[in-house]
Design brief:
Three copies of one chain form a homotrimer. Chain A is an alpha/beta fold. The first copy, chain A, has two domains: 14-148, serine acetyltransferase, domain 1 (Orthogonal Bundle); 154-260, UDP N-Acetylglucosamine Acyltransferase, domain 1, CATH 2.160.10. The first copy, chain A, contains eight helices and 15 strands. Chains A and C meet through helix 2 and helix 6 of A and helix 8 of C.
Chain lengths: 260, 260, 260
């Protein structure tokens, strides 16, 4: 499958080769998963096809078919080299940063945060193309299936780790830089009824602990750390840590490690 | 469909006409969604039928059929004019209060908070009629599908906005007034093992920020605001704001806008 | 069904008899649920078969069949008397401790926390047997279906109540004692990128309130109470209460009841 819809193998896609190798080993070792691993990974020629197939199944419903979603997702992947790049950079980030991630195959199949992020990338492109109802339908399915509510207009960089994923909410005018790690239950929210540019801007390399709530059109500077459970209503300078409710800044020198 | 089961069109249902118009425009503009929009909205004669169809599909499982749920939900809608009224007032509240809501059609199809609330209204009526196991089964499906756990006995007014929805927990003896806005991860909880009347009472026009935890049989007065991440264990007077963990009152004059 | 796959009735399984009696009463009283109750409970000969059937249905997807999952789960239940014991002790704990639980049947059918915990017990055994990909696949489905992300390596005692369940995250090296109650949105998390033994150890009889975040390889002593929304980064001695962000200890004498 795949050649019909114009998918072409990325040249030298080492990550995909590695992922297939892992899936093959798992299928050989665990008969109960062999059919699942073949259908989801091993029969596909490219990472993009496999991911589109998996997302199509996850996000489908009795009224939104997996075939329709597969075709939509694969088309977006094929049109947008930035997304194809981001998929791989995200996957490497998850594998490197999350000690609970045992393989690329594990990330691809099982990580809600990774899957929701890639589905968001599709929704974001559709939104940018003015396909609003479709983008919102995908947002809605992401929210129901992965419990992550990311507005399709939100901008997300590459190498982003959404760990666990459950309960993450990211508003319409939020932006997230590269190499950001965001734990579960994190809110990048707005300020009530107000419209316009109303959500946080997260710099590169920021780490946001579990349950942190960051509200308003504020800046979290490059390399900043936001403690678990922090309620942040003010700008946080680069390489600075914010903790508490309401959050206070604790300076670039103090560098708590306990942010998960 | 529809005439057989006694559904009758509300007279002058302008909201439903507007919603159908929006769905028609979306179907014309986005072929990928046309089938979905026809099946979910455009083939139905009334708002109630469309909503029952959508909820039936969302809440169904391999052992609880969508047909059974459709019939249950539509019957409750037809019996209870208060619920029919609440559906429309809620939908208008979402459309007006949430800057991310682009249309009534968007609310109806995609808002977990709206859908969970209407499904709860059904469960609440069944509970009030003594159909306890059925009410609890619907609560359970709402919790699994929308990640909102609302006890069927809880009382919810009209014009209520549950924004994002994920993680909301509302206990058995909680009550919520009219025109209340509740963000995601909000808990209206009890006090451990204690039985009886043990959950908060939320007045009209209250705004509860993301992640706020309100515990015990306490009163949140009319027009009060509860800050994001607040842990509230005491009564909050009308038009007063409570913030922090544990929450302190900051008076009616101070009126923080950053509660999302 | 059932005799073919070697399931044998537990001798004098009073809990299962009581649960069947409740299901029978509910099926007689509520025709709309009769088919569901027969398929899920009444046709099964043992608690284990019924639970495996229910979990198989809940955790199945278009690529992981309910039959495969049923067989897996029932096999683990049959091999491991500790899990069979834990199922019953957990169910009794839910029934006794949660005032919103009206029957064993209610717990079995509807409680995400109970179902996720039993599915975790299966994943944990598979993990212990080195069936890593399978254990991780089950973890992933638990996280998607019940919004509870429990690493399959985490150790969980008996008589554990996960109330509401939504948003609970339990890390790889966490352990939970017996008779522990954990509310929704509770995190037993790690400390960022660090590997190794990095998650909390929860003693017997601990109560952890909604939204509490407990981070790092710390000990929560027997009978301790963690307040709602607490962010705990330090050991908590036995029978001591910790509240606030960051959490402070408030001593064994003060014994707040408002922890839900």
């Amino acid at each position: 499958m795949g050649s019909e819809n114009g998918c072409t193998m990325e040249e030298n896609d080492e990550l995909w080769e590695q992922l297939r190798y892992e899936a093959k080993c798992d299928a050989d070792a665990e008969l109960a998963l062999a059919s699942y691993l073949y259908a989801t990974i091993l029969v596909h020629r490219t990472m993009e096809q496999a991911l589109a197939f998996h997302l199509g199944n996850k996000l489908s419903s009795s009224t939104l078919s997996n075939t329709l979603l597969y075709n939509l997702v694969v088309d977006v992947f094929m049109e947008d080299p930035e997304i194809r790049d981001a998929i791989r950079i995200d996957m490497r980030a998850v594998r490197e940063k999350d000690p609970a991630c045992v393989s690329y195959c594990h990330c691809m199949l099982n990580f809600k945060g990774f899957l929701a992020c890639q589905a968001h990338r599709v929704a974001h492109r559709l939104w940018s193309q003015g396909r609003i109802p479709l983008a919102l339908a995908i947002q809605s399915r992401i929210s129901e299936v992965f419990a992550m509510d990311i507005h399709p207009a939100a901008k997300i960089g590459k190498g982003v780790l959404f760990d666990h994923g459950t309960g993450i909410v990211i508003g319409e005018t939020a932006s997230i830089g590269n190499n950001v790690s965001i734990l579960h239950h994190v809110t990048l929210g707005g300020t009530g009824k107000q419209g316009g540019d109303r959500h946080p801007k997260i710099g590169n390399g920021v780490l946001i602990g579990a349950g942190a709530t960051i509200l308003g059109n504020i800046k979290i500077g490059e390399g900043a750390k936001i403690g678990a459970g922090a309620v942040v209503l003010i700008d946080v300078p680069p390489r600075t840590t914010a903790v508490g409710n309401p959050a206070r800044l604790v300076g670039g020198r103090r560098n708590p490690t306990q942010l998960t």
